């Protein structure tokens, strides 16, 4: 199992366990876990509405690609530990990570 923690916009944390070998992005897991993530573009890294902050485990994740970095540059609250959840694949690199949802809550 792959285990990581999600902190919602209210600061509440919830552990999540996902079977290994599942081919999903963090965004897809967040949506399936009933977190309110807009994810307007559906995972193409062209909207930044799935912005998360990596509180723990950033160094283990693969480097962001140019498209993700370009979108993060458009966000006023993005920092060096910001990522788009649609670009993070659920695999052993996220085991033990802590993600904080940063994107605005959909209306």
Automatic annotation (TrEMBL):
<dbReference type="GO" id="GO:0046872">
    <property type="term" value="F:metal ion binding"/>
</dbReference>
<feature type="domain" description="2Fe-2S ferredoxin-type">
    <location>
        <begin position="1"/>
        <end position="105"/>
    </location>
</feature>
<keyword id="KW-0479">Metal-binding</keyword>
<dbReference type="GO" id="GO:0051537">
    <property type="term" value="F:2 iron, 2 sulfur cluster binding"/>
</dbReference>
<dbReference type="InterPro" id="IPR012675">
    <property type="entry name" value="Beta-grasp_dom_sf"/>
</dbReference>
<keyword id="KW-0001">2Fe-2S</keyword>
<keyword id="KW-0411">Iron-sulfur</keyword>
<keyword id="KW-0408">Iron</keyword>
<dbReference type="GO" id="GO:0009055">
    <property type="term" value="F:electron transfer activity"/>
</dbReference>
<protein>
    <submittedName>
        <fullName>Ferredoxin</fullName>
    </submittedName>
</protein>
<dbReference type="Pfam" id="PF00111">
    <property type="entry name" value="Fer2"/>
</dbReference>
<comment type="similarity">
    <text>Belongs to the adrenodoxin/putidaredoxin family.</text>
</comment>
<dbReference type="InterPro" id="IPR036010">
    <property type="entry name" value="2Fe-2S_ferredoxin-like_sf"/>
</dbReference>
<dbReference type="InterPro" id="IPR001041">
    <property type="entry name" value="2Fe-2S_ferredoxin-type"/>
</dbReference>
<dbReference type="InterPro" id="IPR001055">
    <property type="entry name" value="Adrenodoxin-like"/>
</dbReference>
<dbReference type="GO" id="GO:0140647">
    <property type="term" value="P:P450-containing electron transport chain"/>
</dbReference>
